[in-house]
Inverse folding.
């Protein structure tokens, strides 16, 4: 019993550290840009990240989640890789089409961010297999190599040239290097697709499409207020908002390690021991809730000092907005926990329907609140959609539970 508990603790610790490194990577990329470059240039990076995010969230199809919850090996590795190649190429093309309406500088930054996300998507396929097979050490090493190479290459180029496109190019090179060193060596080359043997995995696409639509709507919900804020107040206001959001999102990515740990565990308990499934699910929710209570209290007391230390004195006056966004992330984290259960039960279509309603609320809130209230209005919108999405998810979860009991 003790040996089992220690093994579970070790596995969770590796996943937790690995996911922490994953969350720190985009955050540090933005932090260094905010400190080295002007708020306007940092806003350009934030805009490029916001424009590319929904596209890649859709084309990524949440394959890592799909791999983890499908314990049976229904698809070959070549199916996942082929789908990644096809959908990732489509995402880069769509990013360039969207960038046509912007300046050449934004188009170049958007293209480089798209290439980064394309390369990251192959890391996620490998990491999904690591988590499914409970190879926690491989998962940790994958995240560690990715973090080390990207931050090293990016910061060196940024500080030596003070040129954002060159720094992003260095980050892309680092992702390729990390993929070759850590992840490609794990796979049997015979299982990878070739130009002659590759067939488009239409069955896999149909299975993962609801997941892709759900996460696309979720990402669009997150990023739509940024589009309105940039359009009404400019790139500098967007930079301040992104700086606040990255802090809360950094803590959120750490809490998502709880989901990475519990998702395969809950999937296994659901099929093997329903009684243990209920207790594990309750433990999962309580862990998320108390974690975010600690985070909110921490930011309440040291938020101003944290903003000043990370970004500079210009950012330290936005402590109230930071608290609003952190409370909103508490709601989002609990909502994500409920959606984890939807995924375990394979209720993927419900996620898309709920995200569609949440997106509608976000669009209306953004149009009415942000042009009049600026940055604070964007924070109000985040609070609005996070609270309403949690309420709707709780209502749907209770309805599903009542239907199963009856």
């Amino acid at each position: 019993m003790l040996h089992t508990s220690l093994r579970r603790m070790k596995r969770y610790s590796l996943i937790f550290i690995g996911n922490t490194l994953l969350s720190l990577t985009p955050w540090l990329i933005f932090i260094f840009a905010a400190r080295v470059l002007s708020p306007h240039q940092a806003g350009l990076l934030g805009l490029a990240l916001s424009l590319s995010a929904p596209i890649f969230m859709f084309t990524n199809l949440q394959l890592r989640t799909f791999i983890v919850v499908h314990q049976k090996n229904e698809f070959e590795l070549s199916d996942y890789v082929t789908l990644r190649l096809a959908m990732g190429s489509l995402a880069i093309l769509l990013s360039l089409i969207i960038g046509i309406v912007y300046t050449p500088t934004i188009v170049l930054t958007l293209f480089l961010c798209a290439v980064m996300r394309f390369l990251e998507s192959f890391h996620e396929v490998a990491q999904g297999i690591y988590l499914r097979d409970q190879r926690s050490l491989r998962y940790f090493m994958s995240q560690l190599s990715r973090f080390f190479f990207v931050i090293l290459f990016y910061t060196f180029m940024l500080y030596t040239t003070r040129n954002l496109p060159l720094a992003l190019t260095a980050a892309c090179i680092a992702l390729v290097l990390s993929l070759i060193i850590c992840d490609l060596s794990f796979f049997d080359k015979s299982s990878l697709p070739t130009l002659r043997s590759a067939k488009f995995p239409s069955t896999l696409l149909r299975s993962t499409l609801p997941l892709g639509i759900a996460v696309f709507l979720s990402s669009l919900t997150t990023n739509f207020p940024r589009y309105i804020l940039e359009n009404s107040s400019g790139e500098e206001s967007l930079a301040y908002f992104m700086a606040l959001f990255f802090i809360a999102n950094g803590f959120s990515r750490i809490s998502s390690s709880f989901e990475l740990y519990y998702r395969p565990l809950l999937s296994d308990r659901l099929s093997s021991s329903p009684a243990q499934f209920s207790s594990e699910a309750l433990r999962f929710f309580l862990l998320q809730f108390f974690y975010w209570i600690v985070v909110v209290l921490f930011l309440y007391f040291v938020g101003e000092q944290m903003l000043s230390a990370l970004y500079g004195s210009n950012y330290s006056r936005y402590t109230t907005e930071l608290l609003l966004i952190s409370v909103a992330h508490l709601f989002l984290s609990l909502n994500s926990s409920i959606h984890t259960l939807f995924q375990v039960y394979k209720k993927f279509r419900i996620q898309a329907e709920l995200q569609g309603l949440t997106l509608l609320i976000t669009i209306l809130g953004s149009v009415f609140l942000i042009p009049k209230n600026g940055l604070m209005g964007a924070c109000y919108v985040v609070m609005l959609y996070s609270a309403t999405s949690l309420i709707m998810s709780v209502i749907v979860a209770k309805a599903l539970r009542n239907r199963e009991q009856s």
